[in-house]
Amino acid sequence: MGAQKASEDGDRRIGRRALIVGGAAAAAGTAVLARDELARLWWRIPGVEKPREQGAVDYAGARWVAASDANWRRADRPDDFGVDMVIVHVTQGSFDSAVKAFQDPGHKASTHYIVGQDGRVTQMIRELDVAYHAGNRDYNERSVGIEHEGFVDRPEDFTDEMYEASARLTARICARYGIPVDREHIIGHVEVPGTDHTDPGPHWDWDRYLELVRRARTSRA
Predict the structure, then answer these.
(1) Would the keyword Protein transport be found if you checked this record's keyword annotation (predicted)?
(2) DSSP letter at 201?
(3) Residue 107 has what DSSP assignment?
(4) How many Å apart are CA 41 and CA 163, to the nearest integer?
C-alpha cells in the first residue's frame, strides 16, 4: 500500500512537472507567434517601413538602375501585400529604351526587372514595392514583373541567354515567396484581366521557360 501511494505521489509530481513544462513551452510558442504577428502588423502601420539600403538589389545577379518614383508605389511586401505571381513582359524595343522609359516620370509604368538578350539583368524597383506594370491594381500588388528585351513578333529576339537568365531570376523569386512553378502563377502580361497588351506573344516558349525555371529552382534548393 505504501509503495503504491509513493508511486501515485511520484506520478502526480511527474504529471504536474509535465504540465508546468508543457504549459511553459506552449506559452513560449504563443509568445513567438504573437511576436511574429506584431512584427507583421508593425510594417502595416502607415509611415512605418522596412529599412532600405540605397542601390540594394533583391537578386544577386542584377545591376541596380532606379526607375522614376512616379512609376511605382512604396510598399512593404510581402507583409502588406502577399506576392504569389511572376508576370512576363516583352519591351517592344531595346534594353536601353526600356530603361529610359522607366526612368521617365511621364511614362507611368515600370517593371521590377529587365532581362536583356545577352542575359544581363537590371533591377529598377525593389520587390518590396509595387511596380505599375500589369495594368491591374490587384495584379500589380501581388506580382513581380520582368521585362524581356525584344519584340513579340520576332522569335529570334528570345535568345538562349535571355531564357536562362530570366529562368534563374524567376526561380529565385519563386523560392523567396513560395510561388509554385506553373502557368497559374507565372503568367504573361496578356493574361492579366483588363489588359490590352499581347506580350510575351506567340513566340515565347512557355514549356521551355518553365522547365528552365524548375531546373534552376532545383539546383538552388
Answers:
(1) no
(2) -
(3) T
(4) 38
Taking alpha carbons only, the member of 71, 86, 85, 91 closest to residue 200 is 91
Alpha-carbon distance 97 to 99, whole Å? 5
Phi–psi pair at 86, nearest 5 degrees: -115, 135
Greatest CA span in the chain, whole angstroms?
A: 93
- Name the percent of the chain lying above pLDDT 70: 77
pLDDT value of residue 90: 98
Counts for the chain of helices (H) and strands (E), in that order: 5, 8
Residue 42 scores a pLDDT above 70 = no
Evaluate the omega torsion of the peptide bond into residue 180 and state whether it is cis, within 30 degrees of 0: no
Which residues does 157 contact at the CB level (< 8 Å), separation at least 6? 90, 117, 149, 150, 151
pTM of the model: 0.79
- Cβ(145)–Cβ(133) below 8 Å: yes
Residue 221 C-alpha cell reads as 534548393
Cα separations in angstroms, 159 against 83, 113, 156, 169, 197 = 28, 17, 7, 15, 22
Given this model, what pLDDT does residue 39 score? 52
